[in-house]
Amino acid sequence: MKASQFLISTLKEAPADAEVVSHQLMTRAGMIKRLSAGVYTYMPMGLRVIRKVEAIVREEMNRAGAVECSMPVVQPAELWRETGRFQTMGPELLRIQDRHERDFVVQPTSEEAVTDIARQDFRSYKQLPKNLYQIQTKFRDERRPRFGLMRGREFVMKDAYSFDRDEAGAKASYQIMARAYRAIFDRFGLSYRAVAADSGAIGGDLSEEFQVIASTGEDAIVYSTGSGYAANMEKAESAAPAAPRPGAGQALTKTPTPGKSTCADVAELLSIPLKSTVKSLVLATDTLDDQGEVGKTQVWLLLLRGDHDMNEIKVGKLPGLNESFRFATVPEIIEHFGTKPGYLGPIQLKKPVKVVADREVAVMADWVCGANEEDFHLTGVNWGRDLPEPDLVADIRNVVAGDPSPDGQGELAIQRGIEVGHIFFLGTKYSKAMNATFLDEDGKPKHFQMGCYGIGVTRLPAAAIEQNHDERGIIWPDAIAPFTLVICPVGMDRSEAVKASAESLYQDLVAAGVDVILDDRGERPGAMFADWELIGVPHRVTIGDRGLKEGQVEYQHRRDAAPTKVAAADITAFVKGRLGA
Amino acid sequence: MKASQFLISTLKEAPADAEVVSHQLMTRAGMIKRLSAGVYTYMPMGLRVIRKVEAIVREEMNRAGAVECSMPVVQPAELWRETGRFQTMGPELLRIQDRHERDFVVQPTSEEAVTDIARQDFRSYKQLPKNLYQIQTKFRDERRPRFGLMRGREFVMKDAYSFDRDEAGAKASYQIMARAYRAIFDRFGLSYRAVAADSGAIGGDLSEEFQVIASTGEDAIVYSTGSGYAANMEKAESAAPAAPRPGAGQALTKTPTPGKSTCADVAELLSIPLKSTVKSLVLATDTLDDQGEVGKTQVWLLLLRGDHDMNEIKVGKLPGLNESFRFATVPEIIEHFGTKPGYLGPIQLKKPVKVVADREVAVMADWVCGANEEDFHLTGVNWGRDLPEPDLVADIRNVVAGDPSPDGQGELAIQRGIEVGHIFFLGTKYSKAMNATFLDEDGKPKHFQMGCYGIGVTRLPAAAIEQNHDERGIIWPDAIAPFTLVICPVGMDRSEAVKASAESLYQDLVAAGVDVILDDRGERPGAMFADWELIGVPHRVTIGDRGLKEGQVEYQHRRDAAPTKVAAADITAFVKGRLGA
Predict the structure, then answer these.
(1) 0.95 cut: is pTM over it?
(2) Which residue from A65, A69, A92 is facing B47, i.e. has the nearest CB?
(3) Which of A476, B13, B125, B525 is buried deepest, with most CB atoms within 10 A?
(4) How far is CA A493 from CA A544, B215, B529, in A?
């Protein structure tokens, strides 16, 4: 490609609404252009990156035996009513009425459409397993679209769906995708982690997120310094406390703590470590009667160490709390504890509640908690002596850095990540809702066992930039760079030698299959270099009149601090060596 | 590709709603699957065809200097309000409101979005010309979607838009596209015609349609048997009548024609040729006053030969009728002619009308028309003697087969076509509406001169099938076949020799870059052959045990009546020769 035949449109300033560096740099580099909130045109420079991402994804999906199709962007609501998602999905689902006032949606994913294909086409177990995928435009009407392609409304996703005759088959299909995803993310040339994720109501351990590591990532990801264990914060566990509960060493004492309603304030006031305090969280669950009205409400007191945070996913899996809990109201709290939040604790309740202690709290002695009286806390609290053992002991907290890894090997560390892929065992959730069956070997209809597998094709370039940039611009990995190499001739219009040398190198590299761009725009060197450093093309060859007179040109990788002089006669071979071309 | 790893899903019966052969065959061959009226999933077999169409289009567009981008599917209504199309486009434009009740549309084309890019990015004449294109999902909410991919609601279009500093530049850009389109359609391997089309209000001759020839096509296209002249029916002209008007030979006579209200009926009654009759069409134009109310109405009488039809586009270009005419109402007709339609003519009017005679009518003598009296016609009518010369003589009719070509070379012939491409000079229609300007060399802002260029990517395969099929199924041209060649091993499960031979040929052809599929499903020969004939793969090699014992395999092109025996040892070379691989 020659720059004069391409569209290069760089900006000095990022738009005011660009909060993150990938949004700023993609806009400044002319890769994306905002059409509406969360809706972007992929400009030629950006589209080249997206196409390279697509090509890698497509190759590895095909290699893994998945078959590409393309489902409609505009889908009939009737399918989405079958699974109930038309009703339950909320305003994220973009709804349309056509000219005949029939309801449609713009696809956010395609479980319904693909399950509809399966129930028509996959009639016999002999046709299974099958994995259908598409790389197609999606829309999610985010309440607050932001960060450019990171949290856009319209985006491109690769979504794959596997269909198997039984759970063992579905799990094998899942593992094939897990391997394919590692192959895909290895090829992108990014630092990433596959982390275990929560699989929600379906249960089991078959859910992994693929996270590109970046300090600006929205997700906290947890990994062990001593093993391969990795999970997202929702899912991550630490090893249970190893040491038994110490004996009581202090007397139970009511201590005035006026105005100190947080564990941190109390610890500071009493000059004790924060981890000696216990925080009280009050939840409630409602039992519905036959008419669907709230029949009975159960109040729960959750006890966590002062330096720990509740993990809602873990709490939602406890018996009695299964995904339907809510925070208690202030009147409910006053009714049970006799005081308002800030001074709550498990002792001297007005009405009984169910007490759930985090595993760490259950092995504490001489701890501090609220006295259920405004402006007072209790110190020297001890299980058994001052209050009964908790109704339930469980892991209900987020892990923190330094926790022991759950496999006993090493400590947990935490880093930030950007989710760009997610693989998920679905079981029969969709096939049952849509009555999608095949005839099994015994002649009986059975529901498909399904899995779904997504990659955020347009989010990936943004994540790559969050990980790879400097103050001058983007630094693309070779695999997904818009161009692999740029030839920058200095003074091309004044020097026939420069022009001829640049053209010759260009032709040689094109012939060698290198994705090269020759900047023949005639820009000044400073502006030209700034453009390409902003755009982030990883390899650059600069050809100037002075160098050529000494038989030399310059090579510089985008990460190099300074250029390397290379004999002009050797530059093609040198570049091919650097690129492995 | 091996069939066992692909998705082959053929049907014996076409769906009841499939009226045309391409819809029937694409559905039966498992290439598309209906999700909703006019909304289809492109199944793996169909997607391969679409991807090949896309690749050819992309290569030739890039070669012609166009640059690919991708504009959003969901576009904000505010842009569409700038050009007025949000208000004027009617229910074909699919409208959406997002969660904040802001209006959006699903793009039917992207003139607005691309002009918005141009007015932001193309600031100087130095950046021009530019041509931006995309291959992207579109939606038009057709009142009556039908014919599968021929008239769907969701479809894929390649749409390109050129931006130039002046009209000469825009016309040069148009010609570059005209050549690129010929290169694209040549590569598809279809019989097609580029035909002149009407360019509407913009004027000029810069509008061409690319029509795939098919007897089932919706469009009538006109071409000369003696030259390269071709146009669609709206646009096509014939040479003006060469012979002068003959002198009058008959007396004007009022003849009873009871109940004969059409030219055909009258010609039959009087035993004269239909082309000796003249039909009267009554139009009206309304002049609006300052308040926008109808001020004055002008009634027009159009005279056409009895065997000719009016061409509304041509009529709409006449002075005084410019695109705003309507058919007159019955009261208006009675007011001017004294009788109701069926017996109208230009003689003995009650109130004056403007008379427009088609060029052919103007040179007639002794003709027949209505007498402006129910159940009576006039015969022996002659211009000058019986009525004044017409107010206007013009070409206002559709051409018919046998008309002389307008370039004087050959006769016109008519065939049916399917429009799959359209190129169009737009001028400043969109750039003025959206105030899209660049700074010209003189430092002044000027409006872009634009062109737009479309190809119906998903309609093209349907058109190819309408042109290329037989009673057994589709016959793909090599360039866009889902697979170029299929290897059909007979009795692969029983014969190691067949299996080894098929596998060996498969590997050889893959290595030679042939897009080959090996049917390893183990189907019976009859079912296997029927599948591939339905799917329309153009080249087939059949390998059977009996043939192999004689050292032979069979090659058959999809159009061949019978297979050709080829020495097994030579089959790779034979196939490569046939494919030019």
Answers:
(1) no
(2) A69
(3) A476
(4) 11, 56, 63
